[in-house]
Amino acid sequence: MKTWTTALPVLAVIALIFTLGRQPPGIVVVIVALLLAGAVLAAVHHAEVIAHRVGEPFGSLVLAVAVTVIEVALIVSVMLSSGEKGAYLARDTVFAAVMITCNGIVGISLWVTAHRRNLAHFQPGGTGGMLAIVTALVTLTMVLPTFTTTAAGPRFTTAQLIFAAVVSCFLYGLHVFTQTVRHRDYFLPITKEGALLEDDSHADPPTNGETLYSLALLMVALVAVVGLAKVESPVIERGVQALGMPHAVVGVVIALLVLLPETIAAVRAARLGRTQTSLNLALGSANASIGLTIPVIALASFIVPGDLVLGLGPTQLVLLVLTVAVSTLTIVPGKASVLQGGVHLAVFASFLFLTVIP
């Protein structure tokens, strides 16, 4: 295990050094894609090692924050190389992250757990709080620009953008404080009787040295994932253009690549019946994607040239309202069957379909 989880991130970084800023030939693109997939799997392994050491819900935050910080760097770098189309990239990528986490990851996690154990049990108090923050964040940062009147089009003025960035930081900080300090027990996995679920891994927690080793390799793997995704992004953009698809598809592909480690980790937790951990990963990633990305993108917009469009379009607004309504009905009972998982997956499939054929 240690051999490949150490070797793949290092090989991926070496490939990144030799390919970043260049246009590699076809065979190299294929090799880069394979190393990208390997780096993703290695990132999941090292995140799970760290999570085992620090426990829940801190473990769920590790991967969410790390991936989101790197996601911001990827968005900014691609924005700089996409010209006028880059103005919409942040909006498309962040909205795609919300749809992937709140429908894709939530849906498949509920489906897997309920299929194996009849019902998926979780804590509506903690999960509902995370959903409330996701709803507030996405509304204040991506819905309001469509309806504000001071600036023309779905854009914030400078003052509005600063206010949105400050509110995003506050809400995300509140989320982290509540999850890790004030009401930590609201975010721990539970049994069907409502008791806290004990760790059934039977493995001894890793030592401090092993944890720091995994933390370093997690950072290396995540840098490799985002860097190699940027190497692949011109190929993706050319492919999207050749197929006649909307440029928003590029944002969806970026979000899918960046969120793949969290998706795999959430499904693994769901297979063990730890639905709350899966939901922590999903909704925590949604909160981090908005709460951390928007402030940094706002800051970057003052430094780098170009426009920044955050307001959602009509189709995106409908999908967002549907997602919030369905998520609320799923969370309130504190348990879910394959029915709820299937509904979330249907909404996610609709998002993917309507992105390709708007």
What value does the Rg take, in angstroms? 20 Å
**Whole-number mean pLDDT:** 85
CATH topology annotation:
A middle domain of Talin 1
Please give the order of strands in the largest beta sheet: 1-2
Which stretches are low in confidence, meaning pLDDT under 50 for 5 or more residues running? none
Main sheet overview: 2 strands, antiparallel
The helix content, as a percent range, equals over 70%
What is the CATH architecture assignment? Up-down Bundle
Shape: globular
Task: Report the total helices.
Answer: 12
CATH superfamily: NCX, central ion-binding region
**End-to-end Cα distance:** 44 Å
User: What is the C-level CATH assignment?
Assistant: Mainly Alpha
Describe the structure.
It is a multi-pass membrane protein. GO terms for molecular function: potassium:proton antiporter activity; sodium:proton antiporter activity. Residues 28-180, 214-355 form the Sodium/calcium exchanger membrane region domain. InterPro entries: Alkaline_pH_Ca-Antiporter (IPR052946), NaCa_Exmemb (IPR004837). Pfam families: Na_Ca_ex (PF01699). Helices cover 76% and strands 1% of the residues. It has twelve helices and two strands. It has helices at residues 2-19, 26-54, 58-81, 89-117, 124-147, 158-182, 208-242, 248-271, 275-291, 293-303, 314-331, 338-356; strands at residues 120-121, 335-336. The termini are far apart. The radius of gyration is 20 Å and the shape is globular. By secondary structure, it is mainly alpha-helical. The protein has a single domain (2-356), classed as NCX, central ion-binding region (A middle domain of Talin 1), CATH 1.20.1420.
